[in-house]
Amino acid sequence: MQIKFLWVGKTKNPSIKTLVSDYFDRIRRLIACEITETRDLSKRKSLKPAELIAGEGEDLVKHLPASGRLVALDESGRQFTSMDFARWIEAEQNSGSRAITFVIGGSEGLSDMISRRAHLILSLGKMTWTHEMTRVLLLEQVYRALCIIRRIPYHRD
Questions:
Q1: Per-residue pLDDT tens over the stretch 32-83
Q2: What is the pLDDT at residue 49?
Q3: Among 44, 65, 66, 67, residue whose Cα is nearest residue 54
Q4: Which residues make Cβ contacts (< 8 Å) with residue 149, sequence separation at least 6?
Q5: CB under 8 A, 24+ apart: contacts of 30-35
Q6: How many angstroms separate the CA atoms of 87 and 120, rounded?
Q7: Residue 95's pLDDT is what?
Q8: How many of the other CB atoms lie within 10 Å of CB of 1?
Q9: How many Å apart are CA 13 and CA 155, to the nearest integer?
Q10: Could you tell me which residues come within 8 angstroms of residue 60 by beta carbon, excluding any fewer than 6 positions away?
């Protein structure tokens, strides 16, 4: 199985960029994975929020794989404990899923073009996070889940 991370824009904050790189390197030692960053259209002042979401959604759709499971991150989505999230990933592996793609939208939110296709809408909690912090939180939880599945000592119950 492969895990793909797809999000809008490059990670600009150097501290967060370091954490993204660290967790991505950890994950890639355990499973095939990749990160794809699409264009950040928020710099275009002429775009209204709905236009921004639609444009970013079109860019994200171009990078969606033809098969596999699609997970869209949204604050209104399903919340898991770390153990339950690990069980969900393991169940996807065991059911023969070839890939799981996690998608994080831009600053105005995620396009319905993505949400409608998603097999799961995932929330990392009720609090609001910056999009760059969300990347780190997602990567850490995927790494934690893989450690739980492989019984690597990282997670403590």
A1: 999 999 998 887 778 888 998 999 999 999 999 988 999 999 999 999 999 9
A2: 86
A3: 44
A4: 86, 89, 90, 93
A5: 30/143, 30/146, 30/147, 30/150, 30/152, 31/1, 31/2, 31/3, 31/146, 32/1, 32/2, 32/3, 33/2, 33/3, 33/4, 33/5, 34/2, 34/4, 34/5, 35/4, 35/5, 35/6, 35/7
A6: 14
A7: 94
A8: 16
A9: 27
A10: 6, 8, 38, 103, 105, 111, 113, 114
Is CATH 3.30.70.1560 what the domain over 2-149 is classified as, yes or no? no
Q: What's the distance, CA 110 to chain centroid?
A: 12
Place of tokens 């969900």: 88
How many whole angstroms separate alpha carbon 3 and alpha carbon 148? 16
Query: Which single residue is written with the structure tokens 């997970």?
Result: 71
CA proximity to 72, closest of 109, 31, 27: 109
Amino acid identity at 58: E
List residues bridging with 101 in a β-sheet.
Answer: 4, 70
| Cα–Cα nearest to 75, from 116, 118, 113, 124 | 124
Q: Which amino acid is at 35?
A: I
Place of tokens 């869209």: 72
Q: For 62-112, what is the HEC assignment?
A: HCCCCCCEEEEEEEEEECCCHHHHHHHHHHHHHCCCCEEEEEECECCECCH
Instruction: Write out the two tokens for 145.
Output: 């889940």
What average pLDDT does the segment 27-33 reach? 98
